[in-house]
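Predict structure. Chain length: 853.
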Amino acid sequence: MDDKQVTSEQSISGNNEQLKQLIQQYKKINLDDKTDESIKEFNHDISNAEQFLQKQSTQAEIDGYYRNFINSASKLKRKKNNDQVLTIKKQNANKGVPATNSEPSSNNQHSQVVRQPRGTSFRAVPNQNSNDPLKYNETNTGVINGHFDQVSGGNLPNQNTSLTVVKDVIGWTSLSTDPDKEFPIVMTTRVRNYPTFMSDSSAPYGVVLARTTDGFERRVPDPRVAGIYQDIDVAPNSELVVDFISSALATINAWPGVKAKITTPDGNRVLFDKQINGMGKYPTGKLNLMINIPSDVDRVRLSFIPISNSYTLTSNQTSSAYGFGDNPNYMYGGAVSRVNVNSGAYVVSRVTEVKYDFTSDSSTSNYARGTITVILENKGHTSSNETIYRVTLPQGTKFVSATNASTNYNEATSILTLNAGKVSAGTTKTISYTVDFPAVKPSIVDLDGNVTYRTDASFRGDDRQKSGIDEVEQQQVAILMYKEDLRNKYNDTKQYLDTINEADYTTVSVNNLKLKLDEAKAILDEANNNVPMADRKNQDFINQITTEIEHEKIKLKRLTPSIPVMTTNEENASLTVTPQGDTDKMTVQYIGPNGDAKEVIATKAGNQWRLNDTPTGFSIDNRNGSVTVNYQGVQNGSEVSAYDTSGNSDPSDEVRKNVPLKQDTPLAPVITPDEANASVTVTPQGDSDKMTVHYIAPNGDPKEVIATKTGDQWTLNETPTGISIDNTSGAVTVSYQGIQNGSEVISTEKYGNSDPSPESRANVPVKEATPAAPTITPDEASASVTVIPQGDSDKMTVHYVAPNGDPKEVIATKVGNQWTLNETPTGISIDNTSGAVTVNYQGVQNGSEISAS
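Prediction complete.
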């Protein structure tokens, strides 16, 4: 809305012409490519607007309705048509390209445009396909010699000569009817009062439009000096923007100036004829006006007319006495300078990206942040103002930021408004906005924005200023799900599968994991496989698959290993369990000595096995994992069971065996010395079935013999000289011949796997040296012989033949100092002191032999 709109709440009936124009403009929009639903909503808004026109409303009500109704065009949505998208892209290749014949100027002014033939465009032909009412501003207009520096019939003024008179100003015609027309030219920077407000040093020359010649009277204008005009080509329906400076050489007793007047060349239609006050109530200063060119007008006359706030058009102190000209009686009125004429603004939009892909930044985020860019190009010839981009965003969208525009986001309606402010003529302004789109599921968002704007000029026509509108090419946003966690999980798991031997795992568990990987691959390839957005998986499902892959990986089931091998050792009363194959864990269960059920676990880490606990009687071979269970660690003779596992496999079948029973320790063997035979006899006791006899051999070496019972028979492992066994009782006799004389014999015995019995020890009786032979003395007289022992003998045996012819013997034994006979048959006697034994004839066969040892 322009600054001149009526805002009084008391107005009974306001001006609704601009609303009518907007309704007609909207009715001309081509709806062929719009969706049925959006057309229905758009037509409903137009119908309501037409009904609104039928009732009386205040200006404030009309203005409010207009502001709401202008957004109706943004509700139109384009149909999704691939052919149409291609067509739009082709059109977009040429859309917004700056015209090559535009004239650059930092002030967006074109005062020096050279006149074109009548009807020739100063720029480009307006885009007839546009619905923008300001599209006609693309064709520029202009004036010739708007800075008045091209003259003839005289010289331009300078700093020393403030005012000169010429006969012609190129491009301009005087309104004077006098045949001897004159054009006073003033250096506006030299005016006496307020030169800063009444001049432009870059265009200092002004044409003075009034002069009096009667000194201080100043009542009668000089007919040779008058207003000026120029006929210029304009584009029908365009806006005409005129900038000019109105100056007074002095403001003494009068404040002169100029006004602009715009008519058709024949003068029959007046389009503008008003005084503009630029300095308070006075008609001077840097002035600006804009009017609408009617649809049936293509050429207008721009005139500048002298005016004043007094009865006279000239001011005192403007004669030669004050540096203006060379005549002391000439006084001067208002001057016009720096005339610039252009068409208004024409803003079109351009997009560099039609399709966007925005992805949420994590698996837990519900939003996908993205930045949308729109380029605004002013193809007109005056700056635009209130250049506003509007777009409806998906419900729930969060606004983040914008560049090159002030913003307003209505979360209730989801309408985002970006005010880009002014866009200078012939330039572009890129605006962008960053928002967080809802991203709980994949979706396509169609962004159908529009741009509204006005020409940045003071509208002074009798009608209302037009608003421009441009429909932005549809931009499509694909809201994509975050898949990086799934992608990483997929790749890591695929790599893991490549490193294992699938044959070591159950077919079901491997297939379950592969099915999840296939499911993940399908999700990761949705875009490549052109899966429709509506059929793509949402974030919750993607997160679920990511988790399920890990679960199935953990659930990979190794095959059940072979049963462990268990062997017993009767001799040691122990049992050994050995794991098989690729087993990495073996559990051994047993009964402790106190009767409690127990277990130990052997675990393989790398190439080493170890036990979780090493109670008494248990040991492990760290290389092959064999666990030995000795009788000390279990209840005697109890059962041991074991099973293998590999990873998360099911346990193998159990192997079970009893630890061999540990027999009780038997009694020590009995050793009986035999003095007479210089020997000892070692006799096993009880149920013993093994007896070991240690002795010293004659050469001094320690030796042993082992007596073993098999069934009811005992045998020796060897039978060296002097050692013998009783095969029935197991008694081992060690005689002096087999040992070092008088050395010690040691013996232990066992029963089965019992511990050895306590030792029995005894020395073999010493074998004495052989004494001298006894002396036999015959006695012829008494028919007897006497046998006398010699030396230290303590035993003497006498052999004889009894009277009946039987061989006989008697034994004399010394005990202490007394000798005795074992018997005293007839004819045989002993000397108890000397041990001499007398054998008389009565006791022997007559004449038989007697021997003794």
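Summary: The first helix runs from residue 17 to 27.
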